[in-house]
Design a protein that fits this description.
six-stranded mixed β-sheet; UPF0235 protein F0U60_33595; alpha+beta; YggU-like_sf; DUF167; Conserved Hypothetical Protein Mth637, Chain: A; 36% strand
């Protein structure tokens, strides 16, 4: 069964992410309420948490940062992130390792 926190769109995958800023370290926690929960060490100030989120996802998924964009949720803990050039199976395999 596919995880409910992502969906495949033409040429990309969109992730539904729940972010917990100011954590002790940046890591994938698991699935929570149909979203991928991530803890970020960065504070939610001046876009630092959003930048840390995009950088962390790019590194985890092995894609350049330019392929990871924030689609929705700029000032919210609930965010939608688009990852260009990856299929759903690749995203699920990589992100599920941390859960």
């Amino acid at each position: 069964m596919a995880a409910s926190w992502f969906k495949e769109v033409p040429g990309a995958v969109e992730l539904a992410v729940l972010v917990q800023p100011r954590a002790s370290r940046t890591r994938v926690v698991g699935e929570h309420d149909g979203m991928l929960k991530l803890q970020l060490a960065a504070p939610p100030v001046d876009g630092e948490a959003n930048a840390a989120l995009l950088e962390f996802l790019a590194k985890q998924l092995g894609v350049p940062k330019r392929q990871v964009t924030l689609v929705a949720g700029d000032a919210s803990r609930r965010k939608r992130v688009r990852v260009e050039g990856l299929g759903a199976a690749a995203v699920e395999a990589v992100m599920s390792l941390g859960t």
